[in-house]
C-alpha cells in the first residue's frame, strides 16, 4: 500500500513518518519544502489543486496530518483545516483516508469524559475549522482520530503547556497522549477493516493537573493557584475506550510518568 502523508515535517508528522517507513510500505510526503527521510517527497501546497493531484497520483491511502494551528489568521486556519482538507478528501475518493483531528472540537465538559458520539461545541478558529471538516469527511468515509495534547520524544509541547497552565487553577487537568501512542492510533486506524466513517479519541489514561505540569517542567506553582476557581473540571477530558475496543489500541505510555520513567519525554 502506497501511503500519502501530509504534514510530514510537523511535530506529529515527522515522528509518524519515521514509524510508517519502518513498517515497510512506500510513503509519499506532501511538504512545502525539504526532504523527508525514507519517503518520496512532493513539494507543494495543500491549498493548490495541482499539488494535491500530484501528491495523490498512484497512492492507495492518505494520512492527513497537515493543519494550520497557532499564530495563523483565522482565514488561513479555515483555508487549510477545512477547505483544502475537504478538497483533498473528495479527490482521494475510493482510498482509505485517516484524518488527524483534535479533542478541542468537544468544547466544554459534559460532567464526565467525552465520547465520540457527543456533539462537538468548538470555540475558536482552529477547533471550529477541524469540526467543520470532520462533518464532511465523515460522510465521505474518512477514519477520524481525535488527538489529546501531544507530547514526548523531544517535542517542546509539554513545556509550552505552561502558557495556559500558569493561569489555571492548580487542580485543572490536561489530557495528554504520547507521540508513540499517536502513531499507534494512526497506524491502527489506517490498517483496520470496516471502520470507514468512524471517529476515535486517542488519549492516555491519566490526565495531569496544572500543578503536575509545573512540576514536570521544573517551575514552581504560582501563589494562590490552588485557590483559583475551577468552573468546568471535565473540560478536555475524553473517553478512550472506543479505540481500545475497536482498534485494539492500548497506550504504550498510559501516563506522562510512564514516559518520564522510560526516558521518552
Description:
The chain has 10 helices and 11 strands. It has 265 residues and is an alpha/beta fold. The protein has one domain: Rossmann fold, CATH 3.40.50. The strands form 3 sheets. A 7-stranded parallel beta sheet has the order 3-2-1-4-5-6-10, sandwiched between helices. Helix 1 packs across helix 7 and helix 3 packs parallel to helix 4. 44% of the residues are buried. The mean pLDDT is 97.
Looking at this protein, list some descriptive labels:
265 residues; alpha/beta; Rossmann fold; 10 helices; globular
Spatial gap, N to C terminus: 32 Å
Oligomer: single chain
The computed structural class is: alpha/beta
Helix/strand order:
EHEEHEHEHEEHHEEHEEHHH
What is the CATH architecture descriptor? Answer: 3-Layer(aba) Sandwich
**What is the mean predicted local confidence, pLDDT?**
97
The major beta sheet can be summarized as: 7 strands, parallel
Number of strands: 11
CATH topology name, in short, is: Rossmann fold
Instruction: Please mark out the parts with pLDDT under 50 across 5 or more consecutive residues, or reply none.
Output: none
The 3D shape can be described as globular
CATH-assigned homologous superfamily: NAD(P)-binding Rossmann-like Domain
Strand content: 15-25%
Instruction: Please report the first level of CATH classification, the CATH class.
Output: Alpha Beta
Number of domains: 1
Helix share bin = 25-40%
Amino acid at each position: 500500500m502506497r501511503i500519502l502523508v501530509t504534514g510530514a515535517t510537523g511535530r506529529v508528522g515527522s515522528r509518524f513518518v519515521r514509524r510508517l517507513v519502518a513498517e515497510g510500505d512506500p510513503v509519499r510526503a506532501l511538504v512545502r519544502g525539504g526532504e523527508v527521510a525514507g519517503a518520496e517527497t512532493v513539494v507543494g501546497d495543500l491549498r493548490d489543486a495541482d499539488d494535491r493531484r500530484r501528491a495523490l497520483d498512484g497512492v492507495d491511502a492518505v494520512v492527513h496530518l497537515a493543519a494550520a494551528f497557532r499564530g495563523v489568521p483565522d482565514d488561513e486556519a479555515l483555508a487549510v483545516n477545512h477547505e483544502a482538507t475537504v478538497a483533498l478528501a473528495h479527490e482521494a475518493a475510493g482510498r482509505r483516508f485517516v484524518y488527524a483531528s483534535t479533542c478541542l472540537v468537544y468544547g466544554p465538559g459534559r460532567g464526565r469524559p467525552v465520547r465520540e458520539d457527543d456533539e462537538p461545541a468548538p470555540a475558536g478558529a482552529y477547533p471550529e475549522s477541524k469540526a467543520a471538516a470532520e462533518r464532511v469527511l465523515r460522510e465521505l468515509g474518512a477514519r477520524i482520530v481525535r488527538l489529546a495534547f501531544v507530547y514526548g520524544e523531544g517535542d517542546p509541547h509539554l513545556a509550552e503547556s505552561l502558557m495556559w497552565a500558569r493561569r489555571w487553577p492548580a487542580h485543572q487537568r490536561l489530557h495528554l497522549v504520547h507521540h508513540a501512542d499517536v502513531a499507534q492510533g494512526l497506524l491502527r486506524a489506517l490498517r483496520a477493516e470496516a471502520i470507514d466513517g468512524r471517529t476515535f479519541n486517542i488519549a492516555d489514561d491519566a490526565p495531569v493537573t496544572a500543578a503536575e505540569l509545573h512540576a514536570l517542567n521544573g517551575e514552581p506553582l504560582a501563589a494562590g493557584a490552588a485557590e483559583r476557581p475551577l468552573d468546568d473540571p471535565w473540560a478536555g477530558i475524553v473517553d478512550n475506550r472506543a479505540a481500545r475496543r475497536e482498534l485494539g489500541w492500548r497506550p504504550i505510555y498510559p501516563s506522562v510518568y510512564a514516559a518520564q520513567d522510560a526516558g521518552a519525554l
